């Protein structure tokens, strides 16, 4: 996949492009929103996985 080969220089370039497009004042807000979204996604994933583990149909 493409994301496996980015590396540190690629991340720096992406950060610089984002900084130019968005601007330095909005960057913390976007970072916070991304962090909240990822934590909510992880929470939902854990809930789904625990629901699958406890369901009786999965133990056939």
UniProtKB/TrEMBL annotation:
Presence of keyword Transport: yes
Topology term for the membrane: Single-pass membrane protein
Subcellular location: Cell membrane
Signal peptide start-end: none
GO biological process, one term: protein transport by the Tat complex
Transmembrane regions listed in the UniProt entry: 6-23
Entry keywords, A to Z: Cell membrane, Membrane, Protein transport, Translocation, Transmembrane, Transmembrane helix, Transport
Short name of one Pfam family: TatA_B_E
InterPro entries per UniProt: TatA/B/E, TatA/E
Protein name: Sec-independent protein translocase TatA
Species name: Novibacillus thermophilus
Source organism, top-level taxon: Bacteria
A cellular component term, taken from the record's GO annotations: plasma membrane
Coiled-coil zones: none
């Amino acid at each position: 996949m493409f994301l496996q080969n980015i590396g540190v220089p690629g991340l720096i370039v992406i950060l610089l492009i984002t900084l130019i497009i968005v601007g330095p004042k909005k960057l913390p807000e976007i970072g916070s929103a991304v962090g909240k979204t990822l934590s909510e996604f992880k929470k939902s994933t854990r809930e789904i996985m625990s629901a699958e583990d406890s369901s009786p149909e999965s133990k056939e």
